[in-house]
Amino acid sequence: MQFNLLNYGNSRSFPEPHPLLDSATPFDASQRDIAVLVGENAGSQLDQVVGERRAILVELYTECLGVWTGESRAEEGSNVLGFARFRVGDDDPSDLVELVRQPGTSPEAIAAATQLFESAGFTVAVCMDQAGRIIDRLMRPYFNEVLTRLDQGLATASDMDLTLKLGLGYPEGPIGLLERSGLHHHYDVTQALFEVYGTPAFAPARRAAVAKQRKDFEDN
Description:
Number of domains: 2
CATH class of the largest domain: Alpha Beta
Number of strands: 6
Shape: elongated
Distance between the termini: 45 Å
Radius of gyration: 19 Å
Number of helices: 8
Strand content: 5-15%
CATH superfamily of the largest domain: NAD(P)-binding Rossmann-like Domain
CATH architecture of the largest domain: 3-Layer(aba) Sandwich
CATH topology of the largest domain: Rossmann fold
Strand order of the largest sheet: 1-2-3-4-5-6
Structural class: alpha/beta
């Protein structure tokens, strides 16, 4: 399936070369092929891609697609969609692509984007345009709760991880997962969501804030 690729900096969804990106055709403003914008600055470059394309896909971090397209009375939407491969901290991105639509997004654009990612072996979950999308909105409060209970002395980190692994069938406990993948990244995500929603469940846990401060100290 043909598409154009535009790279605008470091990508969290594709930090390493990937067969999907390798199959892209050179950018041509006159084409109707799908355009995929990746990188940390992808959204700010959206106005560089215009025309009646099948779909325009913009890589997101935690932000809403509406930051880049604008919003209007919950009626916004076009052939532009956001996307992100779910990723915890420094772990490799998963094969799950969260595809972000708006109320008026073209069904044809959704179908084209889904086909593109699925043809590369990804699983696609379509969601509405909300900061954090599906998994971060569901999982980050859970991580915060576990970190808070650790502070309160409910159990040791090892016992909580073991209990959740055995009780829920998780392959890895939440505390071990966050420590291994970089607890400071959890701070970045939860702080961004807390600024948008103001919900206490998204307020960064103390241990995440300490990890972020420590990382900043080490980097400087």
